[in-house]
Design goal:
The chain is α/β, with parallel strands linked by helices. Helix content is 21%, strand content 26%. Strand 12, helix 4 and strand 13 form a beta-alpha-beta unit. The chain is globular.
Length: 234
Amino acid sequence: MNLNGWEMTWLGHAAIRLRADDGTTVLVDPWLSGNPACPEEEHEQDRVDAIYITHGHFDHVGSSVDIARASGARVHAIHEIAVWGEAQGLETVGSNKGGTVEGPAGIRATLVDAVHSSGITGDSGIVPGGEAGGWVLELPGGPTIYHAGDTMVFGDMQLIGELWSPDIAIVPIGGWYTMGAVQAARAGMLIGAESVVPIHYGTFPILAGTPSELAEACAGAFEVVPLDVGVPAT
C-alpha cells in the first residue's frame, strides 16, 4: 500500500485518521471516546482540520461534535447531518451524493452511495440523518482513498471504481450490520483498488469477520492490508 507521503491510522471500528507531511489532519467517522477498540490516548486529538462523516449512526458520528468544538475542524456530511451539526454549533459543509467539495490542503472529497440506514440517536430518540454514504478522498500528492462507510456490497461500486480509480479502498467486513468478508471480497473486486483496508470488525463479538477471511475470499485479487489500531501506516 503506497500512501505517497501521507499517513493513515486506524483508530478502531470505522475511524480513520489521514495526515499529510505538513501536519494537515482529517478524520473519517471518528468514534473515539466510548469506542472500546480505540486507544485511550487517541480519544482527544491535537490537530484536526476536517471531519468526514459517512452517516448518522452513533458509531460513526461518534466524537465529531466534541472534536470539532475543540479543534475548529469543519465537518463534511450529507445535508441533513450538516444541518444537525450546525445546530450543535459546528462549522459544517453540507453536500449530497455525487457532489465534490474541496477541503484542507486541497483534498477533493466526493460523497458517494452506500446501502445502509442513517438515523441519528439523540435524547428524544432517533432523528433523520439523510442517507448513508461513503467518501472518495483525492489526497493532493497522495493516493485516492475510498472509505465505504457502512454498507453491503452493491453493483455501483464498480462505477465508483471506474470514475475515481481509488488506489485504496477502506471497507467494512464485520458482518451483521454491514457486509461480511465474502461480500467485502466481491466489493474489492468491483472497486478495483490495488489495496483494501478492512474496518468495522472485532469491536464487539458480533462483528465476527476477519482479515484472513477477506484474504481467502478475494483469492489474491487485491492486497489485503490489515492495520493495527493506533499504529500509523506510511
